[in-house]
Records
---
Amino acid sequence: MIALQDRARREGGNAVVNIRSYYKKNEVNSSSEFECGAGAVMAGVTLEGEVVTLK
């Protein structure tokens, strides 16, 4: 989420909308859930979204 926030600032926006997770070719588009991978040492998730400017 911090990376999405940083991206929005770099691109001149102030919000990221339509956030979805993408893991092993499976996209999850939900306002309350995401899919990630977890192993013995680390976990990972890819989040995608659209940078916008809200008033």
---
Amino acid sequence: MASILADFLVKRPEGYYCRYGDFFVDPLLPVNRALVSHAHGDHATPGHGQICCTAATAAFMRHRYNRQPGHTYTTFSYHQPFKIGNIAIRLIPAGHMLGSAQILMEYDGVRYLYTGDYKMQADSTCEPLEIVRADVLITESTFADPGISHPDPVAEIVKLNGKPHPILLGAYALGKAQRLTALINEHCPERAVLLHHSILPLHRLYASMGITQLRYEPYNRKAMKVDGVDPIYMVPPMTFNSYYRATNVLRVFASGWKHLQHRNDMELYISDHVDWQDILRYVEQVGPREIWTIHGEGRHLANHYKHTLTVKSLG
């Protein structure tokens, strides 16, 4: 059995670095070569020389960083093999948002799987999570806590049907807003979805990449005031926070974080990350020899697997 390299991926100020291939994974600061798992701003940042990612991730990054010079994108389909140095790499669907990818890296007979952000819940607006075997699982641990369990998203979204009132719905503009639109369309079909102007272009980008089923309209003030219509006005977090004194609407924010539910008119726990039980199921199917945790608290996983697996934090 090939030996796992403890320093295969290490955290540097720029991000997670692989010296065996001389590249970074999801770096936050500019680097020469970056592998980017998905297009959220805490993973996809500007200023890199070469960016390797899926075509959807490249499209979202071009939209967001269109004024940033010098980007060179090299895009890959899911499962398309490529190499950087002597490291064989494939991108595997992560189920987090459209174009999101796990990064499978193989070197000297050892398979290292970097999850990026991922979820196991169904989502009609992105590619579903796929599971591959790996020797080392490098997993996000955003909600890696036995006390956190995300409810069924359908059961959550149908709560809106019981609120016959216009709703101000806070949501992250990329990924979450499109998923919520699909959920509302399917499970709250009587509710019109009105979009903030900053979310509209992202819905249109989704449509250009095949997610054409979403029904929505641009926000307009008159539509919010039609008696008996009770629309849902979807806005990004900054706008939601600035409307803290909004009247004649119910304030709702869709998130897995409990602290983001405070002082709203109802709770809406819809997360695009794995919870504790999801991670345990995922680990069982990946079958790693070691777990390395990133983006969160790994101590609960270390305690859970203390007699069976090596678990360490990469920070």
---
Amino acid sequence: MKISYLQIAALSILLISCGNDNSNESGQSNFSRFGGNGSQQATSVETNEVEVGQIADQVRSFGNVKAQNEISVLPQVSNRITEIYVDLGDTVRQGEALAKIYDATFRDQLSQAESQLEQSRIALRRDSAEYQRQQSLMERDLTSESELDIAQAAYQSSRAQFESARSSLTQAQEDFNNTIVRSPVDGVITNRALEVGDLATTGTELFQIASTNGYESRIYLPVQDWRAVKVGQEVSLRISNESGISAEGVVSRKSPQLDATTGLGEVVITLTSVGNAVYPGVLAENVINITTKDRALIVPRSALVEQVETVINPESNTIELERSYSVFVSRGDSVAERRELELGIEQGDRIEVLSGLLPNDRIIVTGQSGLDDGARINVATGDQFQAPQERQIGGNANESGRQAPLANMNMTDEERAAAREKMQNMSREERMAYLRELRQQQADSTSNGQ
């Protein structure tokens, strides 16, 4: 004989109904014990008020702090280094001597250039006088045109040699002066490449100086964050080992394009105020405030209850996940009410609520997992909210708030403390059996005493 699905379903309902008619030892039905509204066990929860405060949509990225200007000091002449006057971390002023290069060769070149200049000056004076004399004689027809031309050519040659000698002296003087390497700016020595005795050559870095005019941080952002960042937005910087804000800054420049290799966009942040922990090269977290709301409703992320639904998109024939969020609100400290939320800005563990809550609502922040809309709750905090296995056993009150069983027994304080310690790691059934055993021992001792 074939049995239809309807017959099977009816038979199942009948069996369940019959099973629910069985009463437990105390005379209560299973339904009233576990599912009946009249005796539903209240869930202990912890509540907090909805926070009303400031929240900001932020972009976070790490970058190294560096001086706005970093200058490489290159020797202008090549020779051996004889003296170095500064070291790493030293603060220098513009024009201050940093190092000395062996200068004997350049001193000799300078002396030779000075001598050549003096010789050319004497020759220029002589030829200039002769040219003037020939001009005077020519005016009185006492000399020929050829003599005048010879005197003029000699004068012009002497003048050219004088200018060349003067230029050579200028170069020799410059080379000699460059044997002392000087700082081009005010700043701090951040790198020293050579030591005393090394050969300094033109084009090779000798020092690196970070200008003290200001600091900046350069960060590289993905396209979504890069698009949201605007010049002029405020930035807070925090050094990794600092608990608070270490520096303040502002977005001063932004690259107009993304890097073709990495797909990241560069953003330059100029520091406007710095603390003692900020120095060139330090790694800092840059927090850029995109949007700030002063009076927003804010809930902790841990209070949210997430619902995930699987949706099949018939057009693309794909499975998509739709997420929605809610919180439970304490109504009269006895009933949990589910509120569907529309969320806004997220800032760390704090999330803005756009709709679904009121400023005076008290949300359930602990114990909300597994609650249903309309479930009974018991708002508790501190020791009252501890789980049963974490509570002190054998104290003045038991889990249900009644007087503890040990308090009614004729025991000394030491015996009662020993019993409490023994029951710490017992299950509920083991504790009940142990208490029955203690009561029986008490009864036996009383009857023997009579």
